[in-house]
Automatic annotation (TrEMBL):
Coiled coil: none
E.C. designation(s): 3.5.1.1
Native source species: Stenotrophomonas mori
Gene3D superfamilies: L-asparaginase, N-terminal domain
One example GO MF annotation: asparaginase activity
Name by which UniProt lists this protein: Asparaginase domain-containing protein
Length: 161
């Protein structure tokens, strides 16, 4: 794999909570720190383009994500994204060709003990290296086609659509 392009958009994976108000903000992208701590042996480039909860991502934001990825020469792309609208963004990214794009996120912030963030990132990195060109979602230990998956909000997991 040549250098991995990582595009960050915010979402729970990058949330920072403030206990006194039960409020949160989207903080700096966590993925670079996670990968450095895990000692990965490949080069990666992080491009933070949004800091939004995915419920607030608009069609214009999705076009920005698509255009950012299209403008980069990397064929292997990892996108961190909030889980609530990840599927909708994945469907927009399917317009891109010549790239393997894997989207992932977390159901609890990366800074929280027991977060699924590291596991999902690891799964996504394995997927982006081994899958043919296309767009995929890596969540809950599975790799999905965006056209065939949905987030089950009540069960807090991804499942077949």
């Amino acid at each position: 794999m040549e250098d991995l392009l990582i595009v960050t958009t915010g979402g729970t994976i990058d949330k920072i909570y403030f206990d006194d108000k039960s409020d949160y903000q989207i903080g700096d992208p966590q993925i670079g720190m996670i990968l450095r701590e895990l000692g990965v042996t490949f080069r990666f480039n992080v491009i933070p383009i949004l800091r939004k909860d995915s419920l607030h991502i608009t069609d214009e934001d999705r076009e920005l994500i698509r255009a950012t990825i299209a403008a980069q020469p990397s064929r292997h792309v990892l996108v961190t994204h909030g889980t609530d609208s990840m599927v909708a963004t994945g469907k927009v990214l399917k317009a891109l060709t010549g790239k393997t794009i894997v989207m992932t996120g977390a159901l609890s912030p990366a800074r929280f003990r027991g977060s699924d963030a590291e596991f999902n990132i690891g799964c996504a990195i394995g997927a982006v290296q081994s899958l043919p060109e296309g767009v995929y979602i890596a969540m809950n230990g599975r790799v999905w086609n965006p056209d065939k998956v949905r987030k089950n909000v009540e069960a807090n997991r991804f499942e077949p659509a």
